[in-house]
Amino acid sequence: MQNAEIGLIPGLDDNAFPVPKLERQHLHDTVVEHLRNLIVEAVLPPGTKLNERELCETMGISRTPLREALKVLAVEGLIEIFPNRGASVYKMSQAEIWETFEFVSGLEAMAGELACERITAAELAEIKALHHAMLTCKAQNDLPGYYSRNQAIHNKINEAARNSVLHRTYLSMNRRLQALRFKSNFKADKWERAAHDHEEMIRALEARDGKRMAAILTQHLLDKRDAVMAMTGASSPQA
Length: 239
Prior knowledge:
This protein is mainly alpha-helical. The chain is 69% helix and 4% strand.
C-alpha cells in the first residue's frame, strides 16, 4: 500500500523506480499550451498583467500548475515575472521586433536551403498535406487554424534541415515572434501574399532549389516584419 501512495510500481521492492503522475504532467502541458495560444492569438496582448486568481478560475486549476506554466513561458520569452509584482505578457520594443525578424529570416533561409538537400519524399508529402489543410482554413476564414498549420509547415521545413543546433535556436527565437506573425495576416492582402509564398516554397522544395527557397523564406519573414511595423505605426529603427 505504501508503494502505491508514493507512486512506485506495485509488487516491486523499495528501490523501485518512481512512476511519474501522468495526469499532473498532462495538466502542466495543457496549461502551458493554452496560455501560449492566448498570447499568440493576442487574447492576452503584449503588456497585459496576468491576474493569477482570474486565470485559475477561468481554467479551473490551482495556482501551482499555473505558476509552473508561467515559469516555462518566461523561459520562452513570452512573459516577464517580477518579484512580488506578478507576471505580464512580454512587450518587445520596436528595435527588438525589427532585429528578431531579421535574425529569424536568416535562420529560416538556412533551414530552407538545407532542407532542399535533405528532405525526404515522406516529409515533402506531409508538408503538402499541411499546405492543403492550411488553404482550407483560409477559405473558411479560420485564422487560428490557418496559423497553426502555417507554423507546422515552417517547423517541418526546419526539421528537414537535419541540424539540431539550428532547430533549437529557431524554436527559441521564433516563439517570441509567434504573436506578431499571427497578427501579420489580419489584412486580406497580407494573408493572400503569405499563402502565395507557401505555394512558392513547395515548388522550391520539389525542385530541390536551395537558393530559391532561401530567397523566398527571407523575403517572407521580412514582409511579415514590415507588416508588423506598419501595424504599430513604427518606422525602421535603422532609418
